Amino acid sequence: MTTILITTANGETGRPMVDYLLTEGFHVRAMVRTDDERAQRLRDKGAEVVFGDLLNFRDVRKAMEGVQRAYFNYPIGEGLVEAAVMFAQAAKERDLELIVNMSHYQSRPHAHSKTTQNHWLSEQIFDWSGVPTTHLRVTFFMQWLLYISGLIRYGRYVMPFDKESRFAPIAGRDIALTAANVFASPAEHGGQIYALTGPVEYSHEELAAEVSRVLDKSLPFEQVTAVTFLEMLGIGDDITKLKHFEAVTLDQREGRLAGITDTAPRINGQPLTTVEEFITEHRSAFELDYPEPNA
Fold first, then answer.
1. Domains of the chain, start order
2. Looking at CB atoms within 10 Å, which of 27, 111, 119, 161 has the fewest?
């Protein structure tokens, strides 16, 4: 039985990817940082759970034992290139059939964001390794809406980006299904770069209006600085995210996240999740569990 290693297995793409791959009969090794309730849920589904740090070469090598295919995903933060080197080396040692690498839609060597530039460098590392790799260049997740759900509940739609900037948000589960289908056919997809977007392009202001419509709630778009935005999320001291968000604002002004691709629905053979469907699925996150007081 083919064993597939899923890193960040409790993340927005990792969790559904584990589900899809188990359903298709693969043996899934889920790599997580902590043995907690989320790890137990992965075990209950039938995944083999291992613990480790992507910046610890011993952990990565151990996680790769007996693996044929692997998913590399690294959160916004320091260490991406180093982690990619370790992952690529371990994969080469194990003669893996395929790596699926999560990258940025605007990946390029001279990116405004060091994080995005490091994703491009990581793509090169995997290609140099000789292990067949599929790079998924992904736009903004719909999960961004969940990050500000606490604000939406109280009638505020806040973003650190220009209201006119355009993008086509995609749901994490659609990315996960795309990756799962790539894993199922490594010979077809190895060596490819796939740009993934959602089904509809919006400006940030238009997306705020769509969320307002679905929730039947007034949510005028409000732009704040990246510093203020991170403080509102309770992570004001995260300098890496601050620099990345400031740089992505420039990417959007240049139109680098605009446009729609048909890659994900073509690979998956089904339509992608719409914003309305996503909000409906997570509606409780956006609504107060008690009536708002009258003005």
1. 3-139+172-196 (3.40.50.720)
2. 27
